[in-house]
Specification:
Blueprint lengths: L1 H20 L19 H12 L9 H6 L1 E12 L5 E3 L4 H14 L3 E12 L2 E11 L9 E11 L4 E10 L16
Parallel strand pairs: 1-6
Antiparallel strand pairs: 1-2, 3-4, 4-5, 5-6
Helix pairs in contact: 1-4
């Protein structure tokens, strides 16, 4: 699992550097944003998972993806590098698109939430979302699982994602029962 994270982490770094040299987006579809998908906390989180999930060579609605995030929001994958040092990689939604799009074009990726714990105070929510990912809709065993710590803000009209901080499950840090559905 450490090797998988190292591969994904290197992929993000390599793709980010490559994307800085070549910033071409295909953008062949005329995607739109859908405000109804961010009116509730539940629909916002579900849309986050839905928008990044698709078969290989399938264009994602990156316009909707960016619409989920408050300006200056961050996506923060974490994990060990090849030397065993724990690292964080801070990305904007645009950085995430640039770094993941080449991989998504070559690989199917379907991520879904399997468990959630939510704490709300006023207009802010802290969500611990357990996820699993598959290469196709027909796969029965996920190739990765992990936990996302999501911070969201309700501005009186809609929910915004402020930050998404995540770590993949590995041998040293298996997902504990409290973050798994009772049936798994």
């Amino acid at each position: 699992m450490k090797n998988l994270f190292a591969f994904i982490f290197i992929l993000f770094i390599h793709s980010s550097l490559y994307a800085q040299k070549k910033t071409r987006h295909t953008g062949s579809k005329d995607f739109k944003t859908d405000l109804t998908l961010v009116l509730t906390l539940d629909s916002t989180i579900n849309n986050f998972y839905d928008v990044i999930s698709a078969d290989k060579e399938t264009e994602r609605n990156w316009k909707q993806f960016k619409f989920l995030f408050k300006p200056n929001a961050k996506l923060i994958p974490s994990g060990e590098d090849k030397q065993g040092n724990y690292r964080l990689h801070y990305m904007t939604p645009d950085d995430y698109i640039k770094s993941s799009e080449p991989w998504f074009n070559k690989n199917g990726y379907f991520e879904n939430e399997i468990h959630r714990k939510t704490n709300i105070f006023g207009n802010m929510a802290m969500v611990i979302s357990t996820y699993q990912a598959f290469n196709s809709k027909t796969d029965t065993k996920p190739f990765i699982r992990g936990i996302k710590n999501m911070q969201l803000l309700y501005d009186g009209e809609r929910w915004w994602i402020v930050n998404v901080f995540w770590a993949q499950e590995n041998e040293d840090f298996p997902i504990s029962k409290q973050y798994l559905p009772k049936k798994l």
